[in-house]
Amino acid sequence: MATSLEGEYRFQLEGEQEKVLSTGDLFYDAPGSIHLPSGSASINEPARILALVFAEKGKEITKLL
Question: Hey, which of 2, 19, 45, 55 has its CA 20 to 30 A from 10?
Answer without folding.
Answer: 55
